[in-house]
Structure formats: structure tokens, C-alpha cells
Amino acid sequence: MDAAYRTMVMDRIMHKTERMLEQIGDRSPHVAREDGVYDDLPHWWWTSGFWPGILWLMHDMTGSDAYRQAAWDWDARIEHWFSRYPLELHHDVGFQFLPTAVIKHQLTGDQEALRIGLRSADFMAGRFNSAGGFIRAWNGDHIGWAIIDCMMNLPLLFWASRESGDPRYKHIAVRHADTILKNAVREDGSVAHILSFNAETGEFIEQLGGQGYGPDSAWSRGNAWGLYGFAIAYRNTGDQRYLDASKRIAHHFIAALPDDAVPHWDFRVEQPEEEERDSSAGAIAASGLIEIAEHVPHAQKRIYQAAAERILTSLTERYATWDQPEHQAILLQGTGHKPAGENINVSLIYGDYYYIEAMAKLNGWSRRIF
């Protein structure tokens, strides 16, 4: 992918997001179906940070005040749910406040954004199970469950440690990463989605399939979360074990890709040629592969950079909506939760976010929130 191609794609993204700004407005999108119209979910939903995250990223890339104005009060909108219905929020406050309060504070120095970001880190830290060394995933009955997705929420705790000077946030993040590394990352580099623990004793019980094909399968988006999440943990700690884990997951991911480099929703389905793709998993993994490339010796960089560019090129040329101006998303053929029959062959806002993030990195964007 040469410089001219990267610039061309970023130009397309700028034109598309300008249109999205008009089309989506104040809605909180998650899924766009066949009609190409993004839905509007409550702000407590776990994906509520990705649309404002796109706005802040595009403001940072372009300097356009229109993006800044549209993104400005999203952190306050989401924080509102701490007081109103706090049980609707869970470990995914990282996905919600890193691309809102944290980047807002980084870009503007806004002190209210700092307060909100630290409040969300406190909430996340409060979900830590010290006996098992994990951050509880969801609310409800499964109080002993942790999931691979949370590796992507840990940057909120690392950031809070730096901003507050309190190392306890980082301690929790490291304990959780160690637990996930021990119990979720398999020898072959595949990753489990859900880990079940005895919440009282902390004893590990089993791996669960979750959104994957089965307990022993390799749900592609979960593998992308792990690939990227451990690379971030390395960036924040310098612990070589995390970079090695990220690389191991990356090698499995790359080896399992089909010919067009966009993954099926699970790498271990029985007949993959008959199964749906997940463009969001490809976008997440591409951004994570670029992260790995920033931390390995020069001789290794091309392995991860080339894989990221191969995925992004395919997403750009085969899975995007450039010729559909009324479509409110960028990427097609995302898969949300196949085992539950939910959000299959749709557009997903987090797929759009990570696609833009990855392309922005290739075009020189140096800020890091995830």
C-alpha cells in the first residue's frame, strides 16, 4: 500500500464521514441493516463511544470544528447513566469513555472530561475480583465471568494511573491481563471468548464459547480483541510476555485468513465457505497489527504491517460503501452474534471506527487511546 493509495483512502473516509455527520447526527449507532440506516440505541449500550470516537479522530486528523462540536458532550451523555441506571453499565466503560472523555481531555485539556474519565476508571476498577484476578464482564447472574473483549478496556486503567499518579489502576489492569493470558490464550495462538471462575474462591472453571462457534473454537473478533489488547498491554507495561502473546495470536489470525484476507466470523466453523464474514474483526485486527509493528524489531515489522495492509486493502475494495452515498456506514458484512442469530451480515459502528483508526495510523496519526 503506497503513500498515494493511503492518501486516496483517507480522502474517501473524509468525504464519507462528512456525510455520516449529517446523516447520523445525535443518534447513538450500533447496527445498520439492509436499508443502510444506523439505529439509535440508549447511551448506556456498550457501543456508544464509537461514533463520537470517529468524530474526535476526524477532528484530530482534519482540524475541522464541525467534528469537535458534534463530539463535545458525548462523555457527559454517557456519564449520565452512572447516576440514572448504573447497572446498565459494565466492563465496557473503556469502549465508552476512551473515545470520548479520554481523547477529549488529550485534545483540549478539558478538566470535566478528565473528571469523567477518572470516574469511569473508578467504576471499572470496582469490578475487579481480587480472588480470581479478573475484571467482571457483565452484570446479572454470571458474576464469575471474564471475557477477552476486556483487554481492549484496560487502556482506561493505564491512562487513569498516569493521570492520577495512583498505581492501583495499573495493578488491576496487569492482574487482569495476566489472568487472561494464563486462561484464554491457547498454545496455538487461538483465544477463548468467555472464562468462567468461581467468584468466591477465584478458581478457574472453564472456557465458554460465547459468541464463537463453540468452547474450543476461535471467534475471529475475540481473537482480534486479544491480538490488539495484548499489544496495548505491552505498550503500557513493557512486559515482553504481552507482546509475545499478541504476536502468537496474530500469527494464528493471519494464518487462518481466507484468500481475500477478511475473516469469517469464526475460524473453526465446519464449512467456512458457507459462513458469513466479519469485517469488524478484520478492521480491529488490522489496527492491532499496526500496533504490533510499532513495537517489534525492524526486521519483523513488515510481517505485521503487510498483513494489516492486506486486510485494509480488501476491506476498502470489496467491503466498503463508497458507491452508496445514502448508506450511513462504511463497512458491510459484519457479524455481531452468530450463535444467537443477532446482527448477521450488517454494518457495525465499531467496524467503522477501527477501520478509520487503522487507516489514520497509516496516514500518520500518532495519538493512541486504545
Largest beta sheet, briefly? 3 strands, antiparallel
The CA-CA distance between the termini, in Å, is 24 Å
Strand order of the largest sheet: 1-8-7
The percent range for helix content is: 40-55%
Total helices: the number is: 13
The CATH architecture: Alpha/alpha barrel
Helix-strand category = mainly alpha
CATH hierarchy class name: Mainly Alpha
Strand content: 5-15%
Give me the strand/helix succession: HEHHHHHEEEHHEEHHHHEEH
Mean pLDDT: 97
Tally of discrete structural domains? 1
Task: Report on this structure.
With 370 residues, the chain is mostly helical. It has a single domain (3-362), classed as Alpha/alpha barrel (Glycosyltransferase). The chain is 53% helix and 8% strand. The protein is built from 13 helices and eight strands. The strands form three sheets. A three-stranded antiparallel sheet has the order 1-8-7. It has a three-stranded antiparallel sheet with strand order 4-5-6, with no helix packed on it. A two-stranded antiparallel ribbon has the order 2-3. The chain starts with a helix and ends in an 8-residue tail after the last helix.
Could you give a quick summary of the protein structure above?
The chain is mainly alpha-helical and 370 residues long. It is built from 13 helices and eight strands.
Task: Output the keywords.
370 residues; mainly alpha; Glycosyltransferase; three-stranded antiparallel sheet
Write the layout of secondary structure elements.
Blueprint: H1 3-24, E1 31-32, H2 50-62, H3 65-71, H4 74-84, H5 93-108, H6 111-125, E2 128-129, E3 134-135, E4 145-147, H7 154-164, H8 168-183, E5 194-197, E6 204-208, H9 220-237, H10 240-256, H11 279-293, H12 298-318, E7 334-337, E8 342-348, H13 349-362
Antiparallel strand pairs: 1-8, 2-3, 4-5, 5-6, 7-8
